[in-house]
Amino acid sequence: MKKLVSVEKFIDLLFFKKFKVIQRNQFNWDEVFNISNDQSVFYDSGYIEFRLECLKGNEIECLDLSIGIKLENEVVAIFPLFYFKNGKDFELSFIEGSIYPPLFIKTLSKKTEKEISNILIDNLIKLFEVLELKSLVIADQLFPNRSLSIWHKTNMNRAKHCSFIRESFVDLSQDYSTLKSYYRKSYKALISKGYKLLSPFKLDHNDSKVWEEFKALHFKSAGRITRSEKSWDLLFDQVKEKNANFYFCRDHNGIMIGGSLVMICKHEAIYAVAAYDRSLFHLPIGHPLQDFIIKDLLNTQVQWYRLGRLYNKIDFDCPTDKEIQIGQFKSGFSSDLIASYRFTEFN
To answer: Are 97 and 184 members of one domain?
Structure first.
């Protein structure tokens, strides 16, 4: 019977010639992350730990195969990756069935970046063959950028197909009045109405009672337990360590009716976890809360607020109606719609 490959076996398979491959727990991952280009929350160790626990907490067998790529005595790139059993199938990916790009340190030469990219893609193709995995999907252009990356060009030369998806962002370099002009026209009245129904707040101290209220609201909204207690603890740790902000709103009786956790790093904030009282879905609760979050993020040094994917029924990964609906809601606050690429079918 097929089993998960060991971390050690994976490291052996990922042969890098003059580069050394080391496991995530063998070096200071966040130290490298903080000196890398295009820093996204997805690469922060806190996010990786949270995502890993979400899988394990749902009783999915999973190995963290995230690695650092070392040249001489310096880790010059980090590469997040999980290998897990999804139902009867085994999968090698990071997020949404895709392998995400390596993140390179700012001082690395383009020549070395290209060399690592070529070796990594070659090894991934071999890994999928050795592990008898169904499909290799490689993501690129996760962050707003005017030019295509070396990683994109390397994949372009190896893949038979390239699809694109859309992600909604808010450009926090602009002022509030400009950003509000981008809001979907129908949202402006809903935001005004919502502020009359509720009071928004940002958790400015580590109040575990408020966090427990949010957990209870999330359970009530979902109708079931969707993640482990440890995953909730990891999220609250991010709040306490100032790597995430928790925003929530209460009705006139002081009852929490909505909440949203936003994970942050130097360059971006990510709309990560949210819950609303389902019995009040006919009321505009999420609208004023998102407006409140955007106004608060404008007081930080964060450059972009990543709202998430704008799904479409023609997307290559066939999103559900619920995903499409959620994406439509979030995109109504965006200032920018960015294309992100997915490469498949490699030579």
So the answer is: no
Co-location of 134 and 178 in the same domain? no
- 221 and 101 inside one domain: no
Pairwise CA distance, residues 281 & 284, whole Å: 7
- Strands 268-276 and 304-309: what pairing? parallel
User: Confidence band (pLDDT; 50, 70, 90) for 287?
Assistant: very high
Q: pLDDT tens for residues 9-61?
A: 777 776 667 888 999 999 999 999 999 988 899 999 999 999 999 988 888 88
**Closest by alpha carbon to 342, among 153, 1, 99?**
99
Residue 2's pLDDT band (boundaries 50, 70, 90)? low
Which of 172, 161, 138 shows the shortest CA–CA distance to 270?
Answer: 172
Domain range for 22 is: 7-157
Distance, CA of 231 to CA of 228 (rounded, Å): 5
3-state secondary structure 192-218: HHHHHHCEEEECCCCCHHHHHHHHHHH
Higher pLDDT, 276 or 132: 276
Q: Are 24 and 45 in contact (CB under 8 A)?
A: yes
Structural element, H or E, at residue 108: none
Please, are residues 138 and 98 in contact by the beta-carbon 8 Å criterion? yes
Task: Check: CB of residue 258 under 8 Å from CB of residue 198.
Answer: yes
Dihedral, 193, 336, 174, 107 alpha carbons, nearest 10: 140
Are 43 and 80 in contact by the 8 Å Cβ rule? The answer is yes
Q: What is the three-class DSSP state of 5? A: coil
User: Across-strand partners of 166?
Assistant: 339
Say yes or no: 197 and 300 in one domain. yes
Q: What CATH number has the domain bearing residue 78?
A: 3.40.630
Would you say residue 344 lies in a domain? no
pLDDT, residue 15, reads 65
Asked whether residue 332 carries a pLDDT value surpassing 80, the answer given is yes
Does one domain contain both 41 and 152?
yes
Sole residue written with tokens 């063959």:
129
**C-alpha distances out from residue 37 to 77, 110, 138, 190, Å:** 10, 12, 19, 38
What are the pLDDT digits (tens) for 72-84? 889 999 999 999 8
Check whether residue 35 and residue 130 sit in a common domain. Answer: yes
